[in-house]
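Q: Is it fine to ask for two folds in a single conversation?
A: Yes, each is treated on its own. Send the first.
Q: Here.
A: Result:
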Amino acid sequence: MKKIIILLLAIIVLCFMPGKAAAVVDVESTSIFHYIMGMLYFYDENIDGTIKEFEKAVELDGNLLFMQENLMELYFSKKDYEKAEIEAKKILEHDKNNLRAYQYLAEIIPLRGGDISEALGYQKKVIGFIPKDAMAHFYLAALYGQINDTVSAKKEFKIVLSLDRKNIQAYLLLASLYEYEKKEEEAMMLYKRALKINPDNTEIIDRLGTLQNKQKKFAEAISNFQKSIVVNPYDVKALYNLVLLNDKSGDWKKTAEYLEKIDKVKPGDARICVHLGISYIELARYDDAVNILKKALETDPENDTAQPLLGMAYEYKKMYREASEAFLKSIEKNPDKKEHYFQLGLCYDNLKEYDKSDEAFQKALEIDPKFAYALNYLGYSWAERGVNLDKALANIEAALKVEPDNGSYTDSLGWVYFKLGDYRKAEKILLKASQLLKDPVIFEHLGDTYVKLTKASQALVVYRKAQKLDPGKKELLEKINKLSGK
């Protein structure tokens, strides 16, 4: 087969060499032979073979400029930028006005990590040949951007837009430069112009919405992101921006709705599942919260956020055993997190496993002796059980030093004095607590204190206040009926 190809090539070569028709020609030593062989390799998609033959052709005849150009392009396609650069510079030695060589050099130098200023010089040469070429100016602007010369980059992008008013990427990049310089109004104007040219371009809509969000124009931002998901219901960026905006406004229903859409597009993304879990907890959708947080942990078993949130969801469902197991796993991963011990203490307290709850609260306080939540809750738990009342008093007083006007802590302090039998002091403190916080527990505690002080009518008033706030509590109704003589 090779002999047939060589014979055919010999005939072609002889056609190009009429003066030597009668002479014996060594076909394989001619540049035209290697060029044709290279083209055969090229059509066979054998680039390495093509390069080898073209190199041989240039070696035999250094004046084959078109062959050098082909070699330059082939080296570039193989990402052999060093050889491509060498070939381009050889071309310029023979032809100082070779546009393709300048174009390739401008592109090669940044790719191989060379001096951008050298690439700029070559690209300016390119523009000298084709001054009205929008893409040539676009690339020059991009090179200026790489050396943070925003003034020159902006100038070139403006030239691009004067040559090509519909160049969306030029609008976006010029707007980005204005944003970088904190010239947000100029950026906004460019995004709006681009949007007029291409109203359904979700990238423009998203960028405009992001800038409006940054400027606290939340209604406009929401409107734009909603437009984006009308154009493309799977625009995850727009959906997540809507999530963040609704987070800010506290619209957890909308937040959950958009997160559910993202979860359909990117199922199993632990970060989205966790965020959705938070939304479900805020919406009191605790079963959904448990399911989505389990999904997050299946995807990412080491997720530090999903595990304690799962514990909280179980806690809200009053599944304290499952909640305690979730918090124990959280503690295994983060043994220095006081909040995990606090939540574990709450679970054990509700399970009436008081030795374990006390231990968990104490551990939280070892980590942070001024942890007011733990100080108060442990003190209140002791007061409820009628144990360690002196320690309970000290704990709650310490919590109030951290937060002096906390109504819950003030109630705890009054309740300790009630348990100590100092009803006068309890009355005074609980009255203050009821002014700080309208809470049924506080009113009930105050009512219990009035009963001890034989102030039945006052007790009845505050019991009824408590009942309005917590109408389903049977103990309150029994206390009211007893005082009312029913």
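Q: Second one now.
A: Result:
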Amino acid sequence: MRKIAALLVVISLTSCGQGGKQNTNNVPAATAVNTPTTVTNVTPPVPVPADWKTYTKENYSIHYPPGWDVKEGPGVAKFTIYFSPDKACSNMGENVSLGVQDIGNESIDLDELAQSASTQFKTMLDNYSLLSHTKLTDGTGDYEQTVFSGEMSSQKLMYEQRYRVINGKIYILTLACPSEGWDVGQKTGEQIMSLFSVNP
């Protein structure tokens, strides 16, 4: 799990940005789930909208809306897709990022991976709150999904992460969004994350 910890730190920093402050007065706090839901659901395929762009790299691809901008990252932080190119995490808008880490033959349990992520974020975010934890299956295979909230640099943020292990690699997709825009941001962000695929 030591390798995984390094990945999670990088992903979280890529997702939420380091600069810019927002007015977070009168933003309703997220309600914590004392016992996160853990269920198994099969998610149906999501069609790719005709005007969306495709980003392909190495053995994976993802689709995203026009008006969003892709910036590649170093090392395990492969890319971040920003809602507004001029924001680039300053005065943060919603974004989706991917981290990939090679684990070789090491056996990783998805539930353990999600719990490790939760532990990491507790140390990185103020007022961290885990809202849900769900086990899901789609055309690419099994994955774990968590939704949580917290504060960083005086910004109230919401997150959704999806964890997969495929062919000896960990894939972590992270959606980050200001709390006050979560209802809209989550809808588009989940559509983007659902259009992520790993090629054999």
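Q: Anything structural to flag on that second result?
A: Two points. Residues 16-39, 85-91 have pLDDT under 50 and may be disordered. The radius of gyration is 16 Å.
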